């Protein structure tokens, strides 16, 4: 494969794929590097109901597949490989991958985020053995069983609603006394007989031998701690931006998100950012797609100035 590119896009989620379409249409030689699955975390969701232009719910994996094909139609190359380093070399950039390296006139960084964990005892030991970060992936294993969902945002409520199709009982454990999710999702949760909410509570420990057996839960108002039996626990407590490669190149906030203006340019010449690595991103596919387009247009403006 060619080593030299006009644009290298790091990340093949909604932001990266949207950017790729626009870079390809601008006749720029474009490579997209994705270390996992093209489409990003959204492909593990059940449905998308709020993507503009679709009156009926759509399957995220289908939408992302069409975006990938659209990029390839314009000559974009999609490559499963992990970017391990970004190095400025004169006017260009070098991207190091496993046993290889590519150069590009511009970088568009859209590496997304990864699931956040509580960091309490038993969590990692029981991951994949009752503890999960993906209800769409694992819900069928808990048919007729009792499960918990940790979180109070949109993702947590989507997870709870999906799990309620399989589990006999779903408990939403939230550390506050009100949810942060969209009102329509809250209404659906409160109306679902299989879902109950445990307010002002936090999980201190995951207990079990070969599989999860219980959660040690503390009520934050009474300070009472008690074990609660569950067959499964699903983490939906937010994400951590994948910005490790950028820490010495751009400004990051205290949580590791890139601080940028509406142009999505960075202080590093020829380096653009997009999607869930940016401070303030609300983790919506439509927002990430829009960001990808914005970054691609500004990237094209930069490349045109070099032609």
CATH topology of the largest domain: FAD/NAD(P)-binding domain
- The residue-averaged pLDDT reads 95
Q: In angstroms, what separates the terminal alpha carbons? A: 24 Å
What spatial form do the alpha-carbon principal axes imply?
elongated
User: Low-confidence parts lasting 5 or more residues at pLDDT below 50?
Assistant: none
Assembly state = single chain
CATH architecture name of the largest domain? 3-Layer(bba) Sandwich
Element order, helices and strands?
EHEHEEEEEEHEHEHEEEEEEEH
Helix share bin: 10-25%
Can you tag this structure with a few keywords?
FAD/NAD(P)-binding domain, 28% strand, 307 residues, single chain, 2 domains
Please summarize what this structure is:
The chain has six helices and 17 strands.
Overview of the structural elements:
It is a single chain. With 307 residues, the protein is of the alpha/beta class. The protein has 2 domains: 4-114 and 239-306, FAD/NAD(P)-binding domain (3-Layer(bba) Sandwich); 117-235, FAD/NAD(P)-binding domain (3-Layer(bba) Sandwich), CATH 3.50.50.60. 23% of the residues lie in helices and 28% in strands. The chain is built from 6 helices and 17 strands. The protein has helices at 14-25, 60-73, 135-138, 154-163, 183-191, 285-306, and strands at residues 4-10, 30-34, 77-80, 85-89, 92-97, 100-109, 113-115, 131-132, 146-150, 169-173, 195-198, 201-208, 212-219, 225-229, 232-235, 239-241, 271-273. Strands 1, 2, 3, 4, 5, 6 and 17 form a 7-stranded mixed beta sheet that branches. Helix 1 packs parallel to helix 6 (285-306) and helix 4 (154-163) packs parallel to helix 5 (183-191). The two termini are 24 Å apart. The relative contact order is 0.18. The mean pLDDT is 95.
């Amino acid at each position: 494969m060619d080593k030299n590119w006009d644009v290298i896009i790091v990340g093949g989620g909604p932001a990266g794929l949207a950017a790729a379409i626009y870079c390809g249409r601008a006749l720029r030689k474009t490579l997209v590097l994705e270390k996992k699955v093209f489409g990003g975390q959204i492909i593990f969701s059940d449905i998308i109901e709020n993507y503009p232009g679709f009156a009926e719910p759509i399957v995220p994996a289908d939408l992302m597949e069409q975006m990938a094909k659209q990029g390839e139609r314009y000559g974009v190359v999609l490559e499963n490989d992990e970017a391990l380093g970004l190095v400025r070399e004169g006017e260009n950039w070098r991207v190091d991958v496993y046993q290889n390296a590519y150069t590009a006139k511009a970088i568009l960084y859209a590496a997304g985020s990864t699931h956040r964990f509580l960091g309490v005892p038993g969590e990692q030991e029981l991951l994949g053995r009752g503890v999960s970060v993906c209800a769409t992936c694992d819900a069928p294993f808990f048919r007729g069983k009792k499960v918990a969902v940790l979180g109070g945002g949109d993702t947590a409520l989507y997870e709870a609603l999906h799990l309620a199709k399989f589990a006999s009982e779903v408990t939403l454990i939230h550390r506050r006394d009100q949810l942060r999710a969209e009102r329509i999702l809250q209404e659906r949760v409160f109306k679902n007989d299989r879902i109950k909410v445990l307010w002002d509570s936090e999980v201190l420990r995951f207990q079990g031998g070969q599989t999860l057996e219980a959660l040690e839960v503390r009520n934050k108002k009474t300070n009472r701690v008690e074990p609660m039996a569950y067959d499964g626990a699903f983490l939906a407590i937010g994400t951590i931006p994948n910005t490790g490669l950028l820490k010495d190149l751009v400004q990051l906030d205290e949580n590791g998100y890139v601080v940028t203006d509406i142009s999505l340019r960075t202080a590093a010449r020829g380096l653009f950012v997009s999607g869930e690595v940016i401070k303030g991103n609300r983790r919506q596919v439509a927002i990430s797609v829009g960001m990808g387009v914005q970054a691609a247009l500004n990237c094209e403006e930069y490349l045109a100035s070099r032609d």
